[in-house]
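Teaching note: in complex prediction, the entire set of molecules is handled at once rather than each chain in isolation. The prompt given to students was simply: 'Predict the structure of this complex.' The entities are:
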Amino acid sequence: MSAESYTAAASVEEALEAMAAGARPIAGGTDLVVGARGGKAPLPDALVAIHRVSELRGIREQDGGLVLGALATHADIVASSTACERFTALADASAIVGSHATRNAGTIGGNVMNASPAMETGGPLICFDAVATLRSASGIRRVALADLFTGPGRTVAEPGELLTELALPAPKDGTGSCYARLEYRRQMEIAIVGATAVVTLDGGTVRDARIAITALAPTIHRVAEAEQALNGSDASDAAVHAAADAAAGASRPISDVRGSADYRRAMAAVLTRRAISTAITRARGGRFPIPASPALHGAVNGGAA
Amino acid sequence: MATAEKPFIRQDGKDKVTGLGRYTADLDMTGMLQAKFRYSDHAHARITRIDTSKARALPGVFAVITHEDVPDVRYGPFVQDRRLFAKHKVRYEGELVAAVAALTDEIAQRAVELIEVDYEPLEIVSDVEAALQPGAPLLHEDWASYGASEDVVREGNDCSRSTILKGDPEKGMAEADIVVKERYVADMSHAVPIEPHAVVAQWQGDRVTIWSSTQVPFIARSGVATTLELPEAHVRIVVPHLGGGFGGKCEFHYEAQVAALARVAQRPVRLVFSRREEFLAPDHRREGQVLELETGVRRDGSIVARRGRLILDNGAYSADAPFFPQLAAMMAAGPYKIENVFVDASLAYTNTTPSGSVRAPTAPQACWALEQHMDSVAGQLGMDPVEFRRRNIVKNGDEGPTRQVFEDIGAAETLERAVELIGYGKELPEDEAIGVAVGWWPSFGIASGAYVKINGDGSATIITGAQECGTGAVMALPLLAAEILGMEPESFSLLYQDTDAGPFDSGASGSQTTFNNGRAVMAAANDVREQLLDLAAEQLEANRDDLELKDGAVSVKGSPTKSVTIPELAEAAHGSTLLLGRGADAVPEMPASDAAGCTGRLGMESFLAPTFITHAVRCKVDRETGVVRVLEVAAVHESGRVLNPIGANGQVEGGVVMGIGMATLEGSLLGEDARQLNPHLLDYKLQTASDSPPIHIGWVDSPTKPGAGGPKGSKGIGEPPCVPTPGAIANAIAQITGARVHELPMTPARVWEAMQR
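The expected output is the structure of the full assembly:
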C-alpha cells in the first residue's frame, strides 16, 4: 500500500488541476485506505487530498430541498434537522454506515463515488431524485444519481471529474420515507439486504411511491413493479405486501459468505415491507426512531437503539 | 477486606488506555528489516521445485530462506509432524514455503512474489468425516514414523483418538425409557486478538533475542531452541505488551523463522501479520467438531446412559490439539451423574489451518451441542429443562465420567442462582425466551516459579516468568505478595515475560497464571517474610515467635513501640544478607479416577479443581429474519474462592461476549479449494460493544481444600466464562422458534432456514 505522490488541495480548482494530471481524490479515506490495507486494491499512484477545501463542506437548504457538499460526513447528515425531518430515509442510512468512526470520517461524496452496490445512502439518494454535480478542469455537468452508477465500483464519471455536491429537490407534502437494512450486529455492519421507500400520501391514497433495493443487484436501483403495486393504492397491508413481493421478485441476489440467494430474496421482501410500512407511518405524521433499522429488528438491549 | 480483594489500578492500565504502551510491532531498531512469508499456493500439493534466485537478486533484499536454510527438524508438542518450512508437501493454504527479509514491506512483498514454486496438486481433504473414511488420501503418508508422545493413539488421518468408558452403556441404553439421538456440527472459528502476531529478532554473536507477541514465552524459547538446534540459554524471548491472545498466540509460532532470517541477513528483522494472515496462518484456531450424542433416560428424568461419537478437526498439523479428544469426551459427558458412558473422540487431519487451544478448547462447541441435547431430552420427557438438569447435576460425593469423586463443588448452586438472577419462569413477550446451559472446566496444575526481592528502600520487586495477556492476572500478583508482607500492592514493581529473568512458567494459557504463578509468588513472599522476621528478631533482640508483620513493620506482639519498619530492615539487609525470596510451590495432585477402560489418556482423565458454570440467557428472535438478539445474561460461576472480584468479573464479561459471538456469528467458511472465504473482519463478524447485553454475575463461594487448588482455594477463571453461553443461547432460540439449530454459529440465515423446515 503506497502512493507515489500526495498533495493537499486548498481549492476546488487546485484539486481539479491535480486530477487532470492523473491524481485521484481522497477525503475521509474510509474506502480507499481501508481497501488498500485489506489488499482489495492498491492506493493510486497519485493522491490529491480534498479534506481542506472548505467550499466542498456543509449542508444547506435550497428551495425546500437539500444541498450536500461532497465533504458532508454521514454524521453531518444525521445532525441535520432538515435531513431528519424531510429526507428521513437518508438520515436512516447515514446513521448506520459502518461505525461511529466511519460516520465521522466518511463523506457522502466518497460514499457515492465508491459506487458500492451495498452502500447505504444510494437508495435514498436515488429515490429522492438527487443530482450530482461533476466538475473537471474543462467543465461542469449534472448527473441524476439514478444514471450515475454503472456497476460495482463504477460510475459514469470521467477520471478527471470530481463530485462537488449533491442536490436533492424538495419532497412533496405528505411524503414519508425509510431506509431499512438487514443487520446481523449493531455496529460495523454492511448491507446484506437493504430497501428504501419514499411514499407520498394524498389523503388516504398513495400518490407517489419510490422503492429501491440495495445489495440485491450489481447496482442499487428502483423497482418499477413495486412502485406500481403501491401507486394509487390505499396503502393497505395487502398493497404493501404486493409491493414488497414485487421488489423481491426483481432482485438478483447472489450466494456468498454473507448469505444464500434464497435467504436474500426472502429478506428482500421482509425489508422492503418494513421500509414501506415505516415510510407510510412517517407520511401519516407518526413518529419512528432514526435510524429505523435497529428498531425494525427489535431494539431492546443496551447500546445503539 | 483482605488486600487481595481490594480494588486496585493495574500497573499496565494507564499505558494501554492512553496509547503509550509499546507492543511488538511498535519496536524499531537501527538497520531493521521487514519480513514477509511466501505461503503455499495450494491446500494440498507436492512441491516439485522452489527457485528463489529472482527474489534474491532484487535490490533491497537481504535474506531469502526456505527449508534448506534451517535444520531439518520436525516439531510439535504431542506429535512431531511439521517443519519450519514445507519440504516435500504443503498441507494447507497458510503453510510457509519461504521467507524474505528486505528493507521495506513493499520490497519484501515483491520478493515473495518473485519466488517460483512448482506444485503437483493433490486431492484435498477438508471434511473431518471424509478424512477418517477408509481409503481417504493421507495428509501425512509417513505418520507412523513421526516422533510422538507414547500416550497418543494414532492411525492414518486420525491424529489422536480417546475414549471414555464407564459402566455398561449398551445395557444402560437398553434399560432406558426414552432414547434421544442427535447430531450437531460446529464450524471452525478464531481467537481474533486485536493485535495480530508480531516478532522481532536480533542476534548478538551466537545468541538471539526475540521480541514476540506470544502468550507462552518459555514454550516459544523451547521451540526456537529445538528447531534451530540452539541451547535454551542462547535464546531469550521478551514479550512487550501483548494485545490479547485468547489462545491464538499459545504454542510456538514464527519466532524461529524470523530468527533464521535475522541470522542470514545479519540485521534485526521484524515480522508483523496483516489481519488476513492472522486468519490464514495463525497456527492456532478453534477446531470444528461433528458430534453425535445419544442419551437414555428413565421417566423420572434420571440419565441411564450416554453415548457419543465426536470428530474434531486438527487441521494440517498438530499444535496442542492431540489432547482435545479426551477433553471433548469429558465435555460430551458433562457435569452430570450418568452411570453408563461411552464417548469415542477422534482428531482428524484436514487441509486447513492447524487447530489449537483457543479459550476453553473444545468446550463451548461441545457444551453447545450437549446442552441443546439436554433440552431435547427434557422435551421428550415433557420435563422443564432446568428441572431435568437439577435432577442430574453433580453434587459433592457424586462420581464424574471417570469415577472422579467430587469434593467441595457448587455446581447445583450455580444452576439455582442463575435461574433466580434471570427470573426464569417469568412472563415474556412471545418472541423472547430464556435458555439455560451448564458447563464445567478443569484447572491446570503446572510447575511455575517467581522471586520476590526487597529493595534497599523497602519497596519490592516481583520477578516472574508469568505472561500477562491482558487479563490482569500478572498485574494482580502484587496483591498476593503484599498481603503476606504487610505491604501495599503499589510498593511492588514487576519484571515479567522475559525468559532470561523469570523462572519457568507455562504462560498465559490454561487459565493457569493465578492458579500456579500465584502460588509461586505467595511462596516467594513467604520466603522473604521469614527472612524479614529473622532479621527483625535480631534487630529487636526479641523472640522470633513473638513478632508480627503488618502495615509495613515488624513489631513485638503486645509492645507496639518495639518495632522496626520494612525500609529499616531493607537498609540493614543491604549492609549484610540481602532479602531475596524464591518460590516454586508443588503442583497439586490430580484427583483419583478410574480410567482403566479409557484409551488415549492425555491428562484429562480427571479434572483438577473443576469449575462449574451456569449461564441463563434471555434472547429475542426476529422470526422474519432469523436475527437473534441477546437481551440479558445471568452468569453464575463456582470458581473456588474468588481472589480479585474486579478481575474475575472482567473475565466473565469478556467470556460471555465472546460466547455470544461464537453462538451467533463467528465462523470460518471454506471454499472447495479449502481456502477460508471470510478471512477478514468485515465477514468474520465479532461482537461490538453495542451488541453487549447487561450481564448479571454471580459467584458461588466454594474454596478447595488447601493444596487441592490455587491460592486460597481458588480455581482457574480465564477460560470458563465462554463455555456455556452458546448452548444457553441455542436453547433460547429453540424455545422461541420451535426449531433447533444444529449448526454453529447459529447465523440469522441458519436460524431462518431451521424455521422453514
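Point out the following to students. The two ends of chain B are 57 Å apart (CA to CA). Chain B touches chain A through 37 residues (CB under 8 Å).
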